[in-house]
Amino acid sequence: MTRALLIPVDDAPRPVDVDGLRDLQRLVGGDIEAVGWVFDDAPTIYVNESGKFDGLPPNRAIFAEHPGTRWDGSPIRVGDLLDVLYGPIVAVGFDPATGEDRDINDAEAARIMSRFGENSIGSGLLATLGVRLVARYAE
């Protein structure tokens, strides 16, 4: 068993035990996709691979925490919307030496609670609605 955190769509993160791939798939509701870039794999978060396209509800918005540059050369400013994650999210520790998941540690759990805790509930829905409104008025 691997200690992890489940981030439900409309609730705060909570601890869960994960027993392999099938458990991860069950928790996210389908095939998994690692979204390692959010925390640089410390921890790794998993979402439903096709949740965004299959109509799963928006969960959490991901906003830039550091300035940077997009693939097209445009700037990324702190607070810019980078993505929205859809459906349930599972966060686990990751061991880069073995390429295997491991128990989430206290520091990683604290990062999850800081970014995806109670204050972020509904952020995915709000961001999705905002993008749709901007797109509608841009037409």
Automatic annotation (TrEMBL):
<protein>
    <recommendedName>
        <fullName>DUF3846 domain-containing protein</fullName>
    </recommendedName>
</protein>
<dbReference type="InterPro" id="IPR024559">
    <property type="entry name" value="DUF3846"/>
</dbReference>
<dbReference type="Pfam" id="PF12957">
    <property type="entry name" value="DUF3846"/>
</dbReference>
<feature type="domain" description="DUF3846">
    <location>
        <begin position="3"/>
        <end position="116"/>
    </location>
</feature>
